[in-house]
Design goal:
The complex is a heterodimer of chains A (about 450) and B (about 325). Chain A is α/β, with parallel strands linked by helices and about 450 residues long. Chain A has helices at about 1-20, 35-45, 65-80, 90-100, 115-120, 130-140, 145-150, 180-185, 190-205, 220-235, 240-245, 255-265, 275-280, 355-365, 365-375, 395-405, 410-415, 420-435, 440-450; strands spanning about 55-60, 80-85, 105-110, 150-155, 160, 165-170, 175, 300-305, 325, 340-350, 410. Chain A is built from 19 helices and eleven strands. In chain A, strands 1, 2, 3, 6, 10 and 11 form a six-stranded mixed sheet that branches. A three-stranded antiparallel sheet of chain A has the order 8-7-9. In chain A, helix 2 (about 35-45) packs across helix 3 (about 65-80). The longest helix of chain A has 17 residues, at about 1-20. Chain A is globular. Chain B has about 325 residues and is mostly helical. Chain B has 14 helices and no strands. The two termini of chain B are about 50 Å apart. Classes of the chains: A alpha/beta (about 450), B mainly alpha (about 325). The interface of A and B includes residues 11, 93 and 448 of A. Chain A: It is found in: Periplasm. Chain A: InterPro entries: Bact_solute-bd_prot1, SBP.
């Protein structure tokens, strides 16, 4: 008995020893495209945290999780903090459960300001302080917008800065395969009118223009909300967009219905979408872009955010095998400029500790951004990073869209209350694609919104 | 992994030890506190009586405590929460109940739940009974039974994932990888996105639960059928009854009690149906049921504890009469024997 117990302990110790002692992807101080000075400074300032625990809960899974862990390794290495990252497919629900149950992680990373505002209102978040909000304002592209997206009313009804933006996505992108465009002789459209013309041209040539997939398990429908938001920003001024996300502008407003209808022009045309209209709602958004790379191509265009290359076939070289163009604006609305729709994950402290504060500080160092940038699938509006660190010229191009943005608007569905932005809006879009009219779908979303007041 | 196993084993050992220690020592203390000594006979008999009164509570205590903490308290807390607003801080009276009655999605869920209740228990019991009767007569009956029973071993989510592939739809000219669509195509039909066909998609989801639960019904009913005295069937055969008559007039009445048990058990299960809907549709395409609606209001984006509490209470109220009836029937049966 005693012997086997000792054996067990020995084997356990063996396995524990095998856990990697924070492998750093890029050796500190070597590659000059990284800002190693910021790393050393951070290390010097936070040497007193050795062995302290830190739990982080975030939305990143799969490849992204591996990237985030590689960034976290630098934090661990610098501070000696015992940091643990976990995630969940249904992170929106998980974080509500964890906070309500009184056992939140130290740090929660969420892509939904609406959800964070809810949590802040219930007193589950710790304010990050004015110096952090000022830092964002000074160092991020369109910093004011970002501060706004992290500022909520707390339990006491007072506004404070609760969520630190880290990692952004640009959504106003249309993906295509340059080779296919060359072969067919298509040109990149510079206006929405041209995009419509191109769509028709592809059909005329016997092809299918779009791959659209709204499937996402329990979150089915969200890719359509991105479409509608992108179109909203191109048909209405940003102020109307802001009012829409707070329901000052109702879903049943002709402006919103028109935007939904405009999306329907692409998605509800049997000839425009790969697999026909019926396939739109049922195709998984992760599978959807694969049609671009089929031979012969199943489609030529795919509207999706900057994260989508993670789901491209393995070995796809960005810029060569796949590229993107900015989702064009209407020539009929020149006054709206070139708006950018985006999103991002926001880091908030759900259980205060010194290590959690140090983690926020870590995110202010360029190295926390550059390590992930260099491994792709990471964009940042942080102006202090070296853009040479981006893994490829395409990402650099996207990153520059963010740092130089003036009209930047956050994903609208993430700003709306959870029941709408992560519920009724999704369902409404699925119903719309399934055959309901834009008025009907919008009416149902609006009545759901009326229901939560 | 190994360290988890080691610590899990450790917890089991400690828990078992702690439990036995509790019973042993609490018993001992009781005996010491109320001594039965030879000296005073009257005191001894009084103490003996007291011991008899206290001992059951001592032994039931932990179970009652856990029952209270995990069952009674949550029910009461949920009931109270149902009168408060979304944050659970502001008293709003019956507003949440009023909302529920007026809400389209809520009524849809009630309708769907009734649909599930009407179809699933009946189908499971019917198929279970038919399979039990038929497999009794054939040499490969046990193999067939094992196959029918096997889905019971699969989790609801696992089963849903399997059926997701059966209903899978591929657009346009792609090869259909979904079994159902492949069959439809084989016979010249047009493939459908089954899980988004309004109204009927409810039935496609129900099939999954029927598939899982028929095995359960079959096993219980099969055992009951075995208990039918051979003589009654023999007598019926001699009297010239055909198979159909034997089934309906002899077998079914004799296993009626068991049918009721199977039926109610599955009914309660159906009222709690959640995983299948979450995995397959998450309530979209008008397949929402009460349990999912509750989860939706509680956990999607911030949460509304008031409204989700109302829905939880309604689910509980719906289950209660069936439970009471079931318990009463079980009691009657116990007394009868």
């Amino acid at each position: 008995m005693k012997k086997s117990f000792l054996m067990g302990v020995a084997v356990a110790a063996l396995f524990a020893g095998a856990a990697p002692a924070a492998d750093l992807k890029f050796a500190p101080g070597q590659d000059s495209k990284f800002n190693w000075k910021s790393y050393d400074e951070f290390k010097a300032a936070h040497a007193d945290l050795k062995g302290q625990p830190l739990t982080i809960f975030g939305p990143w899974r799969g490849e992204d999780e591996a990237f985030f862990r590689s960034v976290l390794a630098y934090f661990t290495e610098a501070t000696g903090v015992d940091a643990k990252y976990s995630s969940s497919e249904n992170y929106e629900q998980q974080i509500v459960i964890d906070t309500q149950a009184g056992s939140p992680p130290n740090v929660a990373i969420l892509p939904q300001p609406g959800l964070l505002a809810d949590l802040a209102g219930k007193g589950f978040l710790t304010p990050l302080g004015d110096d952090n909000s000022k830092w964002i304002k000074d160092n991020y592209g369109a910093g004011d917008s970002w501060v706004g997206y992290g500022t909520y009313k707390g339990k006491d009804g007072k506004e404070a800065f609760y969520a630190f933006p880290y990692k952004a996505d640009v959504k106003s992108l249309v993906w295509y395969v340059p080779e296919n465009f060359e072969e067919a002789g298509y040109k990149i459209p510079t206006t929405m009118e041209e995009l419509h013309a191109l769509t028709d041209q592809i059909v005329k040539d016997g092809g299918v223009p779009w791959c659209i997939g709204l499937g996402s398990g329990g979150a089915t429908g969200w890719p359509a909300t991105d479409w509608v938001e992108d179109i909203m920003l191109r048909m209405q001024p940003p102020e109307a967009y802001d009012k829409w996300t707070t329901n000052e502008l109702k879903f049943t407003d002709p402006a919103v219905v028109a935007a939904i209808d405009e999306f329907g022009k692409f998605a509800k045309n049997e000839k425009y979408v790969d697999g026909g209209v019926a396939a739109v709602a049922s195709t998984d958004f992760r599978d959807s872009p694969k049609g671009l790379f089929a031979v012969p191509p199943k489609c030529y265009l795919h509207h999706q955010a900057s994260f989508i290359p993670s789901f491209f076939p393995e070995g796809t070289k960005l810029g060569q095998d796949a590229d993107f163009f900015y989702m064009p604006t209407y020539a009929a609305h020149p006054e709206l400029g070139k708006p950018v729709l985006g999103a991002g994950t926001l880091v908030s402290i759900t259980k205060d500790s010194k290590a959690a504060r140090a983690f926020i500080d870590f995110l202010k160092s360029p190295i926390a951004h550059e390590v992930w940038m260099a491994q792709s699938s990471f964009l940042t509006p942080y102006k202090g990073v070296s853009t040479d660190a981006y893994a490829n010229p395409q990402m650099k191009k996207e990153g520059e869209i963010l740092t130089s943005a003036t009209t930047f608007r956050f994903d609208g569905s993430d700003l709306m209350p959870g029941k709408i932005g992560a519920g009724a809006f999704w369902t409404g879009m699925v119903d719309f694609v399934g055959g309901k009219s834009a008025e009907e779908a919008a009416g149902e979303i609006q009545s759901a919104w009326d229901g939560i007041k | 992994m190994l360290s988890q196993i080691v610590s899990a084993l450790g917890v089991v050992v400690v828990a078992v030890f702690a439990c036995s220690a509790y019973f042993y020592f609490s018993n001992k203390i009781l005996d010491l506190a109320l001594p039965v000594s030879d000296g005073d006979v009257r005191a001894a008999s009084r103490n003996l009586n007291r011991r008899a009164v206290i001992r059951p509570w001592l032994f039931l205590g932990p179970a009652l405590f856990l029952l209270f903490v995990y069952l009674v308290y949550p029910v009461v807390a949920t009931f109270i929460l149902s009168f408060y607003d979304r944050s659970g801080l502001q008293f709003v009276g019956l507003a949440n109940y009023k909302w529920a009655i007026g809400d389209r999605e809520f009524r849809q869920s009630i309708f769907n739940n009734i649909l599930w209740l009407a179809v699933v228990p009946a189908a499971c019991t019917f198929f279970g009974l038919v399979i039990a009767v038929m497999t009794d007569r054939i040499w490969w009956g046990n193999i067939a039974k094992s196959i029918v029973f096997m889905p019971m071993a699969i989790s609801f989510v696992g089963a849903s994932v399997i059926w997701k592939f059966i209903y899978e739809y591929r657009g346009g000219n792609d090869v259909q990888i979904g079994l159902l669509n492949a069959i439809v195509q084989l016979f010249g039909g047009t493939p459908e996105v089954w899980i988004s066909v309004p109204f009927w998609n409810n039935f496609f989801l129900m099939v999954i639960l029927i598939w899982i639960q028929t095995g359960f019904a079959m096993v219980i009913l099969s055992a009951a059928l075995r208990g039918i005295p051979e003589e009654t069937i023999e007598a019926a055969v001699i009297d010239g009854a055909n198979g159909w008559q034997i089934f309906w007039r002899i077998m079914v009445p004799q296993v009626w009690g068991t049918i009721a048990v199977v039926w109610t058990t599955i009914t309660i299960l159906v009222l709690k149906v959640f995983d299948i809907v979450l995995t397959m549709t998450n309530g979209q395409w008008q397949t929402m049921v009460l349990a999912n609606l509750m989860f939706d209001w509680m956990f999607r984006g911030g949460g509304d504890s008031g409204r989700s509490a109302v829905i939880a209470i309604i689910i509980m109220l719906a289950v209660t009469p069936i439970m009471i009836w079931n318990v009463r029937r079980a009691n009657r049966e116990l007394k009868g024997h």
